[in-house]
Amino acid sequence: YVDSHSRFLFYSSSMVLLEIFVSILSLNLSEPAYGADIAKLKYKLVAGEHGLIIRVKGFNHKLPLLLQLIIDHVSEFSFTPAIFEMIKEELKKTYFNMLIKPEVLAKDLHHVILEHGKWSVIDKYRRLMKGLSAESLLSFVKAFKSQLFVEGLAQGNLTC
């Protein structure tokens, strides 16, 4: 039996850890993916409610290389404690800034009411303020990668 408070702490910390993971992953990719940006290839990493969303856009003959670069960085994910603390502090500021803007808070509350499984900014901010460690991120990433599966959507002029 798991009480609702324990379940809340687990899931809210997972969402926050996913956002930290995505932020560090984006930081790790900034230098190696610079060439892709010059070649007019775009990518976006998003911490979605149901997992990591990777969007790639550009000429299809080079997209597999960019996607492979991202996947390699996911599989070989690493960070330093200093980077973890920096990202955690940035996320605290981001959450706080969202909480002090009534229009953003109202929109977030609207989504929480309408979307099943959506965690509010307030919940995520509270969880972050209770403290998360670099070790908890490592455990999260290990569990995340062990349950990883892929769904894809391709649009446009494609050749396989």
UniProtKB/TrEMBL annotation:
Keyword Protease among record annotations: no
Keywords from the named record: Metal-binding
High-level lineage: Eukaryota, Metazoa, Chordata, Craniata, Vertebrata
Ranges where the Peptidase M16 middle/third domain occurs: 14-126
The UniProt record lists the keyword Transport: no
InterPro entries linked: Metalloenz_LuxS/M16, Peptidase_M16, Peptidase_M16_M
One annotated GO molecular function: metal ion binding
Gene3D superfamilies the record matches: Metalloenzyme, LuxS/M16 peptidase-like
PANTHER family noted in UniProt: INSULIN-DEGRADING ENZYME-RELATED (PTHR43690:SF18), NARDILYSIN (PTHR43690)
Lineage top rank: taxon: Eukaryota
Name of this chain's protein: NRDC protein
